[in-house]
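Re: the 460-residue chain
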Amino acid sequence: MYKRYTVFLFLFVLLFLPFLLVGQDYYMVDNIIIEGNQKTKDDIILRELRFGIGDTISSQDWRELKEKSIYNLEKTSLFNFIEIQMSTNGELCTIKLLLEERWYLWPYPIFEHADRNLSSFLYSADWSRINYGLFLVKYNFRGRNDVVKLKFRSGFRQQYGMVYENTNLDKEKKLSLYSELYYFRQRKLIVNQEDFKPVYLDGEKNIMLDELRGEFGVRYRPSYDVFHTIKMKYDQLVIADTVNHYNKKYASGDQGDKSISFSYRFLYNSRNSNIFPLKGVFTALTFKQYFYGENFNSYITELASDLRAYYSLGSGVYVAGQLAARYRQGKEIPFHMNQALGYEVFTRGYENYIFNAKDYVLARTSLKYELIGKHVRTIPLLPRKFSKIHYALYLEYFAEAFHLSESYEEYEKQNQLGDILGSTGLGLSLVTYYDWVVRGEFSANSLLDYGVFISLHAPF
């Protein structure tokens, strides 16, 4: 009986396989030609391609391989425009990459607000919170997608430091290094919160905070979309006596804090863009272990997750969602280490608020409509690397909600409104070259506050 079924299956495959393969042509990649990479090394570009010399590609798979290769190259932020072409000769094919590199050296004169975001600066209208100086960035430093940053900044928040990242350690470009060293000084800083708003301490001519920070990390990339990162960080904080007067819980010691932390992060990122994603999946899982205090005898154990999904519904309509959470284990965490939302992680409608808490859950949804699809224009008289631009415009409806636990007293009082705070609104996003995103939004939150907010990056 078994032999009879085996013979039947063999005959079925033999008879119908030719019909299954109708319309598919197969080509072996004989050559890959790269044009336009005056600075970037070939191996850095080839690392991002979903195909290589000697691979066999079907005509059915080619469109997806080409699209994902372009996504990978765009996420390097090395090129303004990317085009991939295939030409065939019998069963062989040649693939040509036409690239337009970006301008890589950026000396930024610094004249900027020092608030947590642009909207909070416009809200406070405090021109004493201005930074000035020079920020020098050299992208693609050695043509290997490595970055060197030097910063000299004075004013409200003084900062001096350097960063060197994406130093490849192996031929396969799977292993890279990251390092940074910074020194900060501040005359004015957030020492507490009141009604979810930051309370500032102004030392005028006196320094309220000195901070020395060093960080070193190793990243392993076994496949196109998977990243493993291990980091070690040292942070030394010295505060003025006046800070303790306003908040005795600001630091673990009367004169400041010392901390050392170790972290591991798993990341899966199949999004079509890191700057303004419309399709793909983003999954990040992070474990951090902090040791702090004069003798490093206090600790914080942190687990965090960040799940995001982006889908195209067709006809220029896109939906996206995010679910992020953080859980911490530790006792009497100092104020400056207990930042939750409103610092590096923002919720729309709460740009002018801060929330200090050990744990949080954040959910976001977004519905976008493409008002203007990606257009390419040439502006005369500008240098070649700036004259050709692309732009797109999106209308967006969004809703966001979050919950905090074991937070400061202000939030516990607010629980009478419900355990969950949220916001909703409408916005416009302009996306253009050199990773520029300009967003204008009207939003209202569950604290009965509303307004128009400006931002220079995508929310998630």
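The helical segments are 2-20, 42-46, 59-74, 118-124, 241-246, 384-387, 409-414.
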